[in-house]
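Example 435.
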Amino acid sequence: MVQTADAIIIGTGVIGAAIAFEMSKAGWKTLSLDRNAQVGHGSTAGSCAIIRMHYSTFDGTAFAWEGYHYWRDWADYLGLPAGSDLARFRQTGCMVMKSEANGFLERHMAFSRELDCPFDELSPEDIKRRLPLYSLDSFSPPRRLDDPAFGQPNGAAIPGAVMWPLAGYVNDPALSAQNLMAAARLHGAQVRTGAEVVEILQSAGRVAGVRLADREEIHAPVVINVAGPGSSIINAMAGVLEDMTITTRPLRQEVVHVPAPQGFDFERDGTIVSDGDIGCYCRPEQGNHILIGSEDPDCDDHDWVADDMAFNREFTDQWTTQAMRYGQRVPSLGIPSRKRGVVELYDASTDWIPIYDKSALPGFYMACGSSGNQYKNAPIAGKMMAALVAYCEGGADHDRDPLQFDLPYIGQRIDSGFYSRKRPVNHESSFSVLG
Ligand SMILES: Cc1cc2nc3c(=O)[nH]c(=O)nc-3n(C[C@H](O)[C@H](O)[C@H](O)COP(=O)(O)OP(=O)(O)OC[C@H]3O[C@@H](n4cnc5c(N)ncnc54)[C@H](O)[C@@H]3O)c2cc1C
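Predicted structure in complex with flavin-adenine dinucleotide:
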């Protein structure tokens, strides 16, 4: 007998699992499919899971500020039985260095002010008090190691920073996706792992289900593409690429894990830092380690990947470049010879803003293009996708009259057309992981 569901969700990453949770709560009989053996073991597992509030657009800031509250209230949000093993949100604050390139963060502060999202301006002395191991020499623009000027201060100094004190990170992103899926199951959601989707079925001009690699068909009137870095392949299977002005592509990333310098407990006293002057961000990591990611500076080539299953999972000289860039800021940093960290893929969109939308094929939806910056938004994206599917399946024309969606914690209404697949490229974006 052919298995059926009200809605098939392709992908059990943090966003796919959040959609399953929100839709099953709303009464949909959902079936989540993932080719991996375990829930949450796609790009979510390699995420830095930083929960910050500053974005380059007003809508991006509102969504992230709303998103923070679900991590803060994680246990209440899920409603799992007491004693369940839950991912934990650790509040550390997020310090962002001011620079000419980010307009000294005037726009970011204005958005936060308008949304009542708390922040503090820091002087260079304040930065040193919080991070005594930091040098405040300016090195911009970020450079490659083979540039003779690498590591040479440019004579200026970091003029100050802005601290968003409520920011933090989630200690185990794969577990957070598993938490969401466990919570979805309480509402009747089903999940099948080891199930690779190879075809999107269609009938009478709308989606009809999926075919798996073993030829099994599963039928459903709604299919949602939440395949992370595999999203463009699934969109191509559905034949929905043509009317999209925004497209998605897998982009390879390396994240460095190094021990904190002796004498400073970075795990306890450190903070998340976004530092465009050296093209790096960092956050505390368990075991008094520091995790260092790239802010995609212009001098680095983008390592686009054709196949989200087959890419180089070894560290390259990009690892060393990122570690050495951070070493400019922290001169006492020791860089071990054994490289540790993460190699993973972003699902980067044309303007580094995600797509949460319907498609040209009735019944087929997409939540993709998360561009390295949507982990934090998974719960609210799940809620918005559940509302969007109900809106469209109820007969509304979301392309013409986009869903107006309420962000319950912060009391703001947003136009979800901001995330349309057909939007013009958003030039307010940073065109980087910063969104
Ligand atoms: C290195 C790195 C650091 C990041 N840091 C942050 C951060 O600090 N803060 C932040 O907010 N965001 C961050 N992100 C982004 C965030 O992690 C992602 O946006 C988020 O995890 C994406 O979740 P997802 O559910 O969309 O996709 P994924 O977790 O990738 O899940 C997609 C799933 O789809 C499955 N799939 C794909 N194709 C098929 C198919 N044909 N059939 C069946 N299953 C399929 C895959 O197996 C996978 O499990 C980071 C991302 C990376 C890679």
